[in-house]
Amino acid sequence: MNELPSTIKHFFPPTTALSGIGALTPTQGGARAVAQAVIHCVGGLKVGAVGPGSVGAASEVDFHQALRLDREVVGRAWYRQLGELLSVADAHHAHILLFVDSSASFYAFTDPDEKLYPLGHFAQAMETLLLGLDFGMPLDADD
Which of 47, 102, 106, 118 suits 74 as a labelling partner, its CA being 20 to 30 A distant? Predict the structure, then answer.
């Protein structure tokens, strides 16, 4: 998906190189290659704002300018299910950490309750965060 849905397109500057994100597929480089592609396309960009949303609170998303390997420890609780997760952004005043896996699926880790929510691919994840949509059910951590 090279285009963002019309519901969130206005959050991103017209010159944002989203085609690289829309083309993300599982790669031999794993989660690191996917995370680097995300950062290459939107690294340093801050979009959205915290406020009322459709179901819950809408969030801002602040994309990292470089890989944040210090955050890998957070995703280890789900490693057997998902493999490596790498942080690509913070959201909602850094109370949410946005991770990506090797299949270009995004996950929201909510810091206050330490839950991990699958958000789908980039456009779905951005709609959920920017519009304050329902996160759905969290994933159980590995036993």
Answer: 47
